[in-house]
Structure formats: structure tokens, C-alpha cells
Amino acid sequence: MLNLSHKKLDVYMISLDLVKEIYSITNHFPSEEKFGLTSQIKRASVSVSSNIAEGAARISKLEKKRFFEIARSSVVEIDTQIEIALKLGFVQENNLIQLNTHCESVFKMLSKLISNLT
Fold first, then answer.
1. pLDDT for 21-62, tens place per residue?
2. CATH architecture of 5-116
3. Which long-range contacts (CB under 8 A, 24 or more apart) does 25-29 make?
4. In 10 A of CB 64, how many CB atoms?
5. Region label for 2, one of left (φ > 0), alpha (ψ between -120 and 50) or beta (otherwise)
6. Is the dihedral of CA 2, 6, 8, 11 positive or negative?
């Protein structure tokens, strides 16, 4: 693996924990959701880390900001999908404490990075 600067960012490291948590939680979703909600939420979680990495690699502030905004939007997407999973009974709220902590941390850190680029 490459030794790149984004790997030293706290927000990137927490986003990887977020991916791990999503994969763990979705392992308990119904098998018929494999190509539905399970796939969608996994893709959104991977998108967070990927866009943080890509944004950190960009030179212009405008490009960095755009990728960080996309990553933050993916956190919002995850939040919505978890709400749907709760409503459908695929997950219980007491199993989401760590996930909520990761989502909040990543959202706040990205928001700060974005505001610093403005």
C-alpha cells in the first residue's frame, strides 16, 4: 500500500472504522436485502473513505472541498439508510451506539475540513 498523507488524517481512520461497523451490522440483515439496502449502505460507507482519500490527494482547495462534501453527503446517506433499517426491523437501536459515534465524528470532522477550505 502507498504511504499517502490521507492515511494520517483522523477522519480517514475513523471512516475506516465506520466501514467495518457497517459491514458488521449488515451481516445480520435479511439475505433478500443483499442487493438492496445491504449493498446500498455498504457502498455509501466505502464512498466516505474513498472520497476523503481522493479529496486529500487533490491540489486545489475547491476540488478538496468538493470531495469532502461528497464524503459528508455519504455519511448522511448512511444515516438515512440506518433509519430505514430500524423501521424495517433489520437492526435494533441499542446495536447502533458505536456506528452513531463514528457517523457523528466523521460528519463533524468533515464539516470542519470543509469550512477551513472556504
1. 999 999 999 999 999 999 999 999 999 999 999 999 999 999
2. Up-down Bundle (1.20)
3. 25/85, 25/91, 25/95, 25/96, 25/99, 28/90, 28/91, 29/85, 29/90, 29/91
4. 19
5. beta
6. negative
Q: What residue has cell string 475513523?
A: 14
Nearest to 29 by CA among 100, 91, 96: 91
- Alpha carbon dihedral 41, 43, 45, 49, in 10-degree steps, equals -170
Give DSSP secondary structure letters for 25-83: HHTTS-GGGTTTHHHHHHHHHHHHHHHHHHHHH-SSHHHHHHHHHHHHHHHHHHHHHHH
pTM check: above 0.90:
yes
Grid cell at residue 43 = 457502498
- C-alpha cell belonging to residue 118: 472556504
